[in-house]
Specification:
- By secondary structure, the protein is an all-beta fold.
- It is built from no helices and eleven strands.
- Strands 2, 4, 5, 6, 9, 10 and 11 form a seven-stranded mixed sheet that branches. Strands 1-3-8-7 form a four-stranded antiparallel sheet, with no helix packed on it.
- It starts with a strand and ends with a strand.
- The model has no long low-confidence stretch (mean pLDDT 96).
Length: 117
């Protein structure tokens, strides 16, 4: 089992940038695919970006070209660089770890991102 702790959320103006961090309690290099999800009020949780064990990344259509997921396996950290933020990016952002063996999901507590002028 892995514990995940997100940080880096906050208030940003439209067009601005934020970098979210996710600290995992154990090694993520070989056991988990890592991802960021988000959930806005009244909406379902949606995939923002995923980084597979191989290092391949995928992104949700709304964030392609603006967000970048990365990881530092030596520090058990995952990051989400968010650029050109829009009001519709406002949500609680969750870090996710999915076990490669049996696709069990683990979640962090979430970090709030607010995009407003």
């Amino acid at each position: 089992q892995v514990q995940l702790v997100e940080s880096g959320g906050g208030l940003v103006r439209p067009g601005g940038s934020l970098r979210l961090s996710c600290a995992a309690s154990r090694s993520i290099s070989s056991t988990y695919h890592m991802a960021w999800y988000r959930q806005a009020p009244g909406k379902e949780r949606e995939l923002v970006a995923r980084i597979f064990r191989s290092g391949i990344t995928t992104y949700g259509d709304p964030v392609k070209g603006r967000f970048t997921i990365s990881r530092d396996v030596s520090k058990n950290m995952v990051f989400l660089q968010m650029n050109s933020l829009k009001p519709e990016d406002a949500a609680v952002y969750y870090c996710n770890a999915r076990t490669i063996a049996d696709s069990v999901d683990y979640w962090g507590q979430g970090t709030q991102v607010t995009v407003s002028s």
